[in-house]
UniProtKB/TrEMBL annotation:
InterPro entries: C2_domain_sf, CEP120-like, DUF3668
Protein name: DUF3668 domain-containing protein
Pfam families: DUF3668
GO biological process: positive regulation of centriole elongation
Keywords: Coiled coil
Location of the DUF3668 domain: 178-327
Coiled-coil spans in chain: 505-564
One GO location term (cellular component): centrosome
Organism whose genome encodes this protein: Lygus hesperus (Western plant bug)
Keyword Coiled coil: yes
Length: 648
């Protein structure tokens, strides 16, 4: 699988995501990981049932050396410590991961690293019931170019690590001097980074009413370490123990590169475990830092809510911080005096190391919507060690490392080795793997005869240093032999591949001819179908043109009929209107005539009535015959008048 990694520079990455089952802790938690003598540690985490580490530890090395470490079953040892006080750590348990268990991820493969839970071993009886475990990602990948910009100092062994820790290299104190290594170990220029929160105002506007008067703190992270101030009252304008003096061992170019990648310093306001808000100061100017131009910046920054909004609309009522940040070259003589004082300080017991006080322990990075910081990243470089005895070797005499077991080594010697391990850590470490019994065959190069006479002790014949060197040398020779066998295998595989490809080529040529013949026949059929299709299309085009002509003729005929119909309809409508007008006039004349006749008839009726009355009066004087004749004459005269008037 490592052959898929093309680069010669690789890195072993351990990502510590979170933990579970740590509810029994009341003190801060820290994780230390050691790989072949190089130790890296995470920031200190507040005690919680499920603490969030979000820490990334990297060891950079070359491909050949990493292959040898994997062949030697080298283990990555992960230890969890709880902080008892400023000078003592209590180990909770450990985890051993074989390098062969690491997931190999080629560059740009898009493969996501697997997350697995690992239970702590070597737990005490009171912690076993809680079953604490860590969620880890363990992978091997090609080294990124950007990770080579800042390479932290590497501790070659446990002894060097403890000595350096005793000198204050990695201890983080807000109230005391310390220094951090930025860049390669050859960078020996000293700088002093001072971060001072001078004033905090209007904090009452961001503190909930129920929390007013409760102690609050400020927390910020710089160069992989987190700092927290002492508790203070939110109604006051001064912050206790809010100045951090960080001594940095580096060069101007490395510092400029660091602040180019991390141009903002974020201050978080805590009330207990709750984040109330945050404020950021821009340190972009430090990306152009040089020794000839010291950096001092005073700034007033406003605290915003977690969603990035202002606390109040009135700027005068917004909570703020007055912060001063300075980065100055430091006098070397002062550093030497500090080192001398640290060396004169009392030595610590084996297994203990100094670390921050309770009020100044580094916090884990949390995802902040305002300016989300990257996960804690600590890097080290694994170089091929010289053949000297490291104190880590005592931890891996016959279990953690690759070795050859000598039958003549007595149980007494093994018990002595176990006692050395107990002296270093207080208990015997659990191991992975089993001893490799070396009965070397004659078929392997540079054989090593591991059988000696049983009446001699191995410690008297060969010191452990030479046994270690012989095992290392044999491991290198086996690795070289393995590489040669791989080359031979690749050559044989290439020959077999060529032979197989030749056979496949002949078979393919035969099948190709058959396929070409079949394809030619199908092409001819397709061409015939194409010609028929073209003829059918041409017929359809002719028919379509004819239909179009007929459609045009019908359209014109329809338009002519519509025009004639419209004209005729208008003529008929006009004649109808004229006839209707004439009839209305005639009807009107008849009605008028009828009305006049009716009036005349009424007048005649009145005349008849009048005549009847007259006749009635004169009836006594006239005879009946005369009356009848007179009435008849009158009626006749009336009818004549009627006929004359109505029938001219």
């Amino acid at each position: 699988m490592m052959d898929n990694l093309l680069s010669s520079s690789l890195q072993v990455v351990l990502e510590i995501k979170e933990g579970s089952g740590f509810s029994f802790l009341t003190s801060p938690l820290i994780v230390v990981a050691a790989l072949n003598g190089s130790k890296l540690e995470s920031a200190e985490i507040r005690p919680a049932s499920s603490p969030l580490f979000d820490t990334q530890l990297l060891w950079q090395t070359d491909k050949k050396y990493l292959r040898r470490l994997r062949t030697g079953n080298t283990a990555l040892k992960i230890e969890c410590f709880s902080v008892i006080n400023e000078h003592k750590r209590d180990r909770l348990g450990y985890i051993l991961l074989n390098l062969k268990e690491a997931q190999i991820i080629p560059k740009d493969s898009g493969i996501a690293a697997l997350e697995t839970w690992h239970k702590l071993l070597g737990l005490r009886s009171e912690a076993k019931s809680h079953a604490p475990e860590l969620l880890l990602r363990f992978k091997i990948e090609e080294a990124n170019d950007e990770s080579a910009i800042t390479k932290p100092s590497r501790f070659a062994s446990i002894k060097d690590y403890r000595d350096n820790r005793g000198m204050g290299d990695a201890a983080v104190h807000l109230s005391g001097p310390h220094f951090l290594q930025i860049g390669p170990p050859e960078s020996t220029e000293l700088y002093e980074l001072v971060i001072n929160i001078q004033e905090a105002g209007n904090l009452y506007s961001v503190i909930p009413p129920s929390e007013i008067g409760a102690p609050i703190t400020f927390q910020y992270s710089v160069m992989g370490s987190s700092y927290i101030s002492d508790d203070f009252n939110g109604l006051q304008d001064t912050v206790a123990n809010a100045m951090a003096v960080v001594e940095v061992k580096s060069q101007a170019a490395f510092l400029a590169s660091y602040f180019k990648g991390f141009p903002h310093l974020t201050f978080k306001l805590y009330c207990g475990d709750k984040i109330l808000g945050s404020a950021s100061i821009d340190l972009q100017e430090l990306s152009k830092f040089s020794n000839s131009k010291p950096f001092v910046k005073k700034s007033k920054i406003f605290i915003k809510t977690l969603d990035g909004k202002d606390v109040t609309e009135a700027e005068s009522l917004n909570p703020y911080l007055k912060v001063e940040v300075s980065l100055l070259p430091k006098n070397v003589n002062l550093y030497e005096d500090n080192v001398k004082k640290m060396l004169e300080a009392p030595r610590l017991d084996a297994g203990d190391a100094p670390f921050p006080s309770r009020n100044t322990f580094p916090q884990e990075f949390q995802m902040d919507p305002l300016s989300p910081p990257p996960p804690n990243r600590v890097m080290a470089h694994l170089d091929e060690p010289e053949h000297d005895i490291l104190s880590d070797d005592l931890l891996l005499p016959h279990e953690d490392g690759f070795m050859f077991h000598n039958d003549s080594i007595s149980k007494q010697e093994l018990s002595e080795n176990d006692s050395k391990v107990r002296d270093l850590h207080g208990r015997r470490e659990d191991v992975i793997g089993s001893p490799h019994h070396a009965t070397v065959n004659s078929g392997k190069p540079n054989q090593l005869n591991a059988q000696t006479k049983s009446n001699f002790r191995a410690a008297d014949i060969l010191p452990r240093q030479y046994i270690r060197e012989a095992a290392q040398k044999t491991c290198e020779e086996l690795e070289d032999w393995k590489e040669q066998q791989q080359e031979i295998f690749k050559y044989e595989l290439k020959m077999k591949t060529e032979k197989h490809l030749k056979k496949l080529s002949e078979e393919w040529i035969k099948q190709k001819k058959d396929l070409e013949t079949t394809l030619k026949e199908k092409i001819d059929n397709c061409q015939n179908l194409y010609r028929k299709l073209e003829e059918a299309i041409s017929d359809l085009v002719v028919k379509s043109e004819r239909l179009s002509l007929k459609e045009d003729e019908l359209h014109r005929a329809k338009e002519e009929l519509d025009r004639k119909y419209t004209t005729k309809f208008q003529e008929l409508r006009k004649a109808s209107q004229l006839h209707q007008f004439d009839m209305e006039q005639k009807i009107h004349a008849v009605v008028v005539e009828k009305n006049s006749l009716t009036s005349k008839l009424e007048e005649r009726d009145r005349e008849i009535a009048h005549l009847k009355e007259t006749i009635a009066k004169n009836s006594s004087d006239l005879s009946k015959d005369q009356v009848a004749a007179l009435i008849e004459d009158m009626v006749i005269s009336l009818f004549k008048n009627y006929h004359l008037n109505y029938n001219p």
